[in-house]
Amino acid sequence: xxxRVLYHDHCFDGAASAAYFSxxxxxxxxxxxxxxxxxxxxxxxxxFSEDLFDGNVNAIVDFKYCATEKLTWWFDHHQSAFxxxxxxxxxxxxxxxxxxxxxxxxxxxxxxxxxxxxxFGYDPADLKNLVYWAEIVDSANYPNAEFAVALAEPAxxxxxxxxxxxxxxxxxxxxxxxxxxxxxxxxxxxxxQELYKPLYDKHVRSIDLIRERARxxxxxxxxxxxxxxxxxxxKFIPYFLFPEATYTVSVSTPLLRTKVxxxxxxxxxxxxxxxxxxxxxxxxxxxxxxxxxxxxxPGAVDAARETAQEVVQxxxxxxxxxx
Length: 323
Ligand SMILES: [Mn+2]
Description:
Layout: E1 2-8, H1 12-29, E2 34-40, E3 57-61, E4 73-76, H2 85-93, E5 99-101, H3 108-120, H4 128-138, H5 145-150, H6 154-164, H7 168-178, H8 183-187, H9 190-213, E6 215-217, E7 220-224, H10 237-241, E8 247-252, E9 258-264, H11 276-282, E10 286-288, E11 291-296, H12 301-316
The chain binds manganese (II) ion.
């Protein structure tokens, strides 16, 4: 008996969802099942192929729907949960009682926990802390920027490892541990410590780099990390360093692309008036109202810098019409 779980890769809530779902299956339905995991990433096409669904039971958690008869369970909380209107129709026709979507939920792990409790009477006390942190992390519901940057909480240390590790093998171990160990116990594992230390050093170095390079003008913090070996920086660092900044615009060169990131301060003293998704879409990018990004080809740093400057100027001005 094999249970295949497809989950949102390199995402704390994705891993927490896979962990919660696995415990639910093991404790409530299939005590003898073996579990196998597949991390899923967003891309333009060919997200799903039929051979991904090789289990006796197949599940997708915290990720898009797949219109295949091989799919047994589905849980998601994203607004854009369907690849096509046909997929949505397929979901709406489903009568299994095992496919669930609610875009109002802060985290998918929390949503799975709620369905397991209300529909199946499953409610393990030892997983409450996992859900508690999935809700905080997936909705960026931190009390302040320092809390989000200091990584004092073991759960936030684990976020750094999950978002920064490149190995599928360790991700699947982490999911197994999240289903029955505390965050302290997981962080104490030698394999995790080995991964965490260099990622934490990079985190600290990125704080120094951003402090050095950023200039804040008209409520916008701008910095350029191109050429630096920093794939992803913690997006709360600018607001930790510059609490007066309402927006952040940065240029960076993660693997295989050049990127302009545009963000807004969750603790801003001024109202967020610009829709960042709308601005990024104008340059071929996208995102959410409060955070967006624009991708360029690798090496297109000059073009990215030029665009970044235009975005900075726009954010420094009052929006001309409601976006
Ligand atoms: Mn999620």
